[in-house]
Amino acid sequence: MKAYWNSLTKEQQTHLAESVGSTRDYLRLVFNGHKNAGFNLAIRLEQETAGVITRSELRPDIYQSSANNVGA
Fold this sequence. Notes:
Helix content is 53%, strand content 0%. The protein has helices spanning 2-7, 10-19, 24-31, 39-48, 55-58. The N and C termini lie far apart (27 Å). 18% of the residues are buried.
């Protein structure tokens, strides 16, 4: 996740933050592992990144990876 965040320009980071109703500074903390994304923020980030960042990456304690559900 950190690599994805760092690959974005500051303008792209700001746009992503605004798109999900957050701030660039808060998302920086989330992508660097210092804060947890909330339930809704994790969903919005997955949608806005077109699945590049998944809700299960952001909150594995809430959302199980679809790979873990295969054959369940």
